[in-house]
Amino acid sequence: xxxxxxxxxxxxxxxxxxxxxxxxxxxxxxxxxxxxxxxxxxxxxxxxxxxxxxxxxxxxxxxxxxxxxxxxxxxxxxxxxxxxxxxxxxxxxxxxxxxxxxxxxxxxxxxxxxxxxxxxxxxxxxxxxxxxxxxxxxxxxxxxxxxxxxxxxxxxxxxxxxxxxxxxxxxxxxxxxxxxxxxxxxxxxxxxxxxxxxxxxxxxxxxxxxxxxxxxxxxxxxxxxxxxxxxxxxxxxxxxxxxxxxxxxxxxxxxxxxxxxxxxxxxxxxxxxxxxxxxxxxxxxxxxxxxxxxxxxxxxxxxxxxxxxxxxxxxxxxxxxxxxxxxxxxxxxxxxxxxxxxxxxxxxxxxxxxxxxxxxxxxxxxxxxxxxxxxxxxxxxxxxxxxxxxxxxxxxxxxxxxxxxxxxxxxxxxxxxxxxxxxxxxxxxxxxxxxxxxxxxxxxxx
Length: 446
Hints:
This protein is mostly beta strands. The protein has helices at about 1-10, 20-30, 190-195, 265-270, 270-275, and strands at about 55, 75-80, 85-90, 95-100, 110-115, 120, 125-130, 140-145, 150-155, 170, 175-180, 180-185, 200-205, 210-215, 220-230, 230-245, 250-260, 295-305, 315, 320-325, 330-335, 345-350, 360-365, 370-375, 380, 385-390, 400-405, 410-420, 425-430.
């Protein structure tokens, strides 16, 4: 794929945010349809698949496409906002196969899905949604059993907008979709001529976000509907449910998200807006910096019931518990995975304090005291921190953080190791070259 782009100067598939030649987009509109991946893609197409936002070392039920007699048996699965998944060899990183969600259930026919699947920390069951465009958008929320490998659709949701949802929320009881007021224009059909998702999105600042709480265990579908003021988000962090403190027999859900006031963040990361010498970069720095910086927010959904309700029912209010200052907020957020679906205190991520046209530091945010620690060094641009828990640790922040940092002075990268408790550097591994920025990483303990 990279070689094709290098040779032709273009990528002609539907992408997340690549700008397209308007003439080509207009004429291709008349002859093209959505190019959903199909099981059994040709061998020559493996290198062309643009799948690489999140990584997973195991997805239950996903059939491997390794050839019989393959020397290696370990795979890594790559995921994006499409319903595609790509299998690569964990040692060589060579592509093995490309498939889509129809390979695990024939009704998962939609084009889009969440790049961030969610995994039950106890059972290992895998959850995601599949979004099908049409005159009426259809969300199919599904579970893949870790013990049997079988896939079941736990809810089918209609009569809500087709929204861009990069990640969703999982608790012990529920799957929660926040339907942002960032939705696909013309029911998704606009993607056919924009050829990317960003330009096909509309944002209505007057339309509230809708939260759909979906039962995980008993087949009841939607059991709660909430609304909040409009915002956009790429990433949720953690969430948990507890017996309601105000409504007997019901449940309260607490959740954390990295939120934005609008969609400006989507276009901030176009090349010309990140290049510090570009005039358009001034639209996102200085007094304009706040327009595309995130705020870490905690919400509470109070009084989730036990019975099925239609998504169109009058919503309750999603209560805003706090909104952290933008300078202290975390994007590409992470936490100690041992606390998944349980009350957690610390959130780690990259931060944007307005010192550059890119993320300029790392942050540890304490949700209990609502205070932050930072690592800010001039000309150092960090990537997503990955939390690795201390196997013998007792406290939530016992562990280390791993982040690939670009040193702008030496024009090389290094792997930074930080103590997650003290938030101080404990080591680094220098590299001989610069490592291109990605989005997400994954630590596998061997």
